[in-house]
Amino acid sequence: MMKAGTPEKVDLNPIGTGPFQLQQYQKDSRILYKANDKYWGKKPDIDRLVFSITPDASVRYAKLQKNECQAMPYPNPADIAKMKQNKDIQLLEQPGLNVGYISFNVEKKTAR
């Protein structure tokens, strides 16, 4: 792809040897994978994966509650207490390295 002068295809048409193959990518919407029938290892237990791209944490949580998805990242902090009380939701937590910073544009006269 690089020699052909089409490097953008590396992201959109990846070639791999893993248990799943990219089937379809819809920008800002979803990613579909199917089981790779040429996979060298154990065949996956499921035939397809669907990653629904849902930017809003509240919408992701609603989908989880309605069983429209089986996993979600980055819950809204306000929803965590409710999630812990729901016996149907397994909430995974771990400490993380969080870095916060404030930057100032000192090139502007008003910031000096």
TrEMBL record:
<dbReference type="GO" id="GO:1904680">
    <property type="term" value="F:peptide transmembrane transporter activity"/>
</dbReference>
<feature type="domain" description="Solute-binding protein family 5">
    <location>
        <begin position="5"/>
        <end position="109"/>
    </location>
</feature>
<dbReference type="InterPro" id="IPR000914">
    <property type="entry name" value="SBP_5_dom"/>
</dbReference>
<dbReference type="GO" id="GO:0042938">
    <property type="term" value="P:dipeptide transport"/>
</dbReference>
<comment type="similarity">
    <text>Belongs to the bacterial solute-binding protein 5 family.</text>
</comment>
<keyword id="KW-0732">Signal</keyword>
<dbReference type="Pfam" id="PF00496">
    <property type="entry name" value="SBP_bac_5"/>
</dbReference>
<dbReference type="GO" id="GO:0030288">
    <property type="term" value="C:outer membrane-bounded periplasmic space"/>
</dbReference>
<protein>
    <submittedName>
        <fullName>Dipeptide ABC transporter, substrate-binding protein</fullName>
    </submittedName>
</protein>
<dbReference type="InterPro" id="IPR039424">
    <property type="entry name" value="SBP_5"/>
</dbReference>
